[in-house]
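lol ok so funny story. i was supposed to be doing the assay writeup but got distracted and ended up predicting the structure for this chain instead. priorities right. anyway since i did it might as well share w the group, maybe its usefull for someone
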Amino acid sequence: MSSLVVVRHGRTAANAAGLLLGRLDVDLDALGRRQAVALAAAVTASSGPIRTVVSSPLRRAVETAEAFGLPVEVDERFIEVDYGDWDGRPLSEVPPEVWSEWRSDPHFSPTAGESLHGVAARVDEACRDWAARAGDGSVVVATHVSPVKAAVGWALGADVNWTSHVDPASITRIDVDGGRPRLRSFNETGHLVGLAAG
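and the output, tada:
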């Protein structure tokens, strides 16, 4: 049986400010770097042999992946959703009617952006590929909110949607047996207890 350990990157200043953060390429903040170290220690202690560490190409995910101290393979399919014209802007600026449609329709794409359905299609393919390569070990995937939700959707055989919360530096575990995924845990954050902000 193989395992995908899907982790969200540590905090960034944009996350802390409540901005929509899609394809903008920013670094972790000081707390985010501490979160990445704690995350890597927790996964290493609990996941058996790690075969590969995979990352989105964005710096915040790569920095999180590098905390494992292993070679990192970049997979573009794990990049964050493209928020298009809303990238880098406060969620409060999105008109209520647009936000309502965005939350209810996985095929909705913001102007110059990407739909959650599009994210799910590429993440499903990536999860199948990496699960097949994991053998009887684990593959760690350092990624973002929407790809984490898409990976959970893949494991559950459900559409990806906005109705779950994914914390920075959280851990989600998916076991794969005979090609069949099974969600084992979602949004683990116990390893972050006691980390000071700032």
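The helical segments are 13-16, 30-46, 59-66, 96-104, 116-133, 145-156. The radius of gyration is 16 Å.
back to the writeup now i swear
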